[in-house]
Design brief:
Number of strands: 14
Structural class: alpha/beta
CATH architecture of the largest domain: Alpha-Beta Barrel
Shape: globular
CATH class of the largest domain: Alpha Beta
Largest sheet: 8 strands, parallel, barrel
Strand order of the largest sheet: 3-4-5-6-7-8-9-10
Strand content: 15-25%
Radius of gyration: 19 Å
Distance between the termini: 29 Å
Helix content: 25-40%
Bound molecules: iron/sulfur cluster
Length: 320
């Protein structure tokens, strides 16, 4: 397994980062025991970096594995939508308490779009930067699905790490294509920022191009680490093998490809439209006659992030 310094930070992270959305209540909703088992298996295979978020509500799935393996040996990235001092303070406290730790290696603002959104979050940014000075946060960053988000981070001056979408088809990038995204990433890299990519498999859409998708991201020299969602010991073994240049058998790849993700919307949907407004990928719409409208997903656009499920008042949506 390759390890890289995340930009100018002190963090030396494994190239393969454990993306924990997949085990969280928004997706597979594994038990604490199952989650710990998979995480420890990943650590055993050289992974020392976990990505989570306040939104995933899964700190309880991670803290036991951290304790068992040794907190100082694992780096944690988390993120929140904090926009003010108070929301920043409460999201940091939630992470510290939830993970039973006294520091977070990388704290990020979730889903930042541009310099305008960053400006709107300045109070939270100021709070996180103070906490960085105090040593409670190791590095500060943003996650983004936008090229304009990466550019804004590169020009901001106080952002250490950017967490953008990178996959060979540019799936999930909202405002352009992969070529433009790589240009923006190059600008950030020149400023010695850490680049920690997400969605190398396009949220599952590129499973049929499994090897090609990983070859693409692993050959991009600007990426320090890549978050990959994993939900079984087998997936951990395959991903760790790929990231360590091992040849993966066709049979194993076929098994992984046979577990595609889907978004299910229950038939008790009331058609309130909250999920439609929440989806950045424009993958949801309300269909049907007036008074009987229900949410419908366009599977070609959906990247299975599960964020829509979080806003449904009737718990209709599940990624499985
Ligand atoms: S439909 Fe839901 S799971 Fe799919 S991309 Fe939109 S928010 Fe994410
Ligand atoms: S938020 Fe839930 S109830 Fe409202 S439209 Fe979406 S799935 Fe239906």
């Amino acid at each position: 397994m390759e390890y890289n310094r995340l930009g100018k930070s002190e963090l030396k992270v494994s190239k393969l980062c454990f993306g924990s959305l997949t085990i969280s209540p928004l997706q597979r909703n594994l038990s604490i025991k199952e989650s710990e088992n998979i995480l420890l298996h990943a650590f055993d295979h050289g992974v020392n970096f976990i990505d989570t978020a306040a939104l995933y509500e899964n700190y309880h799935q991670i803290r036991g594995a951290l304790k068992q393996w040794g907190r100082q040996k694992i780096h944690i990235a988390t993120k929140s939508y904090a926009y003010s001092r108070d929301t920043a303070k409460s999201s940091l406290e939630e992470a510290l308490m939830g993970l039973e730790t006294d520091y977070i290696d990388l704290f990020m603002l979730h889903e930042q779009e541009s310099e305008h959104t960053l400006r709107g979050h300045q109070e939270a940014i100021d709070f996180f930067l103070t906490k960085k000075k105090e040593g409670v946060i190791g590095s500060f960053g943003i996650s983004t699905h936008f090229i304009s988000g990466v550019r804004a981070a590169a020009n901001h001056g106080a952002i250490d790490v950017v967490h953008p979408i990178v996959n060979h088809q540019g799936l999930g990038i909202v405002d352009g294509d992969m070529e433009e995204m790589l240009e923006a990433i190059g600008e950030a890299k020149k400023k010695d920022m850490g680049i920690f990519a997400m969605k190398p498999l396009g949220g599952g859409h590129l499973l049929s191009d499994f090897q090609k998708s990983f070859d693409y991201v692993l050959n991009l020299k600007d990426l320090d680490s890549i978050a990959v969602g994993m939900q079984s010991r087998e997936e951990v073994e395959v991903n760790a093998g790929i990231f360590s240049n091992e040849k993966i058998s066709n049979d194993t790849i076929k098994k992984i490809q046979a577990q595609p993700r889907t978004l299910q919307i229950a038939d008790w949907c009331q058609g309130c439209g909250r999920c439609v407004n929440r989806c950045n990928m424009n993958a949801l719409s309300l269909q049907g006659e007036k008074g009987k409208k229900r949410a419908l997903v366009d599977p070609k656009r959906c990247v299975f992030c599960g964020y829509c499920g979080k806003v449904c008042p009737d718990f209709c949506i599940k990624v499985i």
